Amino acid sequence: MRGTLRILRALQWAMLGSIVLYAVAEGFLRPGAGGIDPSLSYLFSTAGVGIVGIIFVVRRTLVLRSAQALAAHPDDALILNHWRSGYIATYALCEMLALFGLILRFLGSGFEQSLLFNVGGFVLLIFFGPTVPVSVSDTQPQA
Description:
single chain; 143 residues; mainly alpha; 5 helices; 80% helix; 0% strand
């Protein structure tokens, strides 16, 4: 369990670093003369909102359910794999959100517009950091 938690935290920090690198790279890119088609910008924005919704669904179905079961059975390898997979899927979706910003910048959008996607991915990655599953009986005071 501790090893898995350490790996997930390392993955989280690596992805946070990559998002910072995306933002730095976007700062050096110059937008095209024609700009970007507004319908393409709306498409990326809608897809970004959809990804955020998918992140919450993945968290609820994989991470939170597995965390409850893992708190009750900490030695179960199958539950641990589901829990780890849920975190990895969550992090990949957060990274995809930041990649949308990089793609938009390459297509010619402004830095401010692409930065919104980077900030969203970064904040979600920090917000969904891995935590040790705790059973409900461990949180209730002893009589």
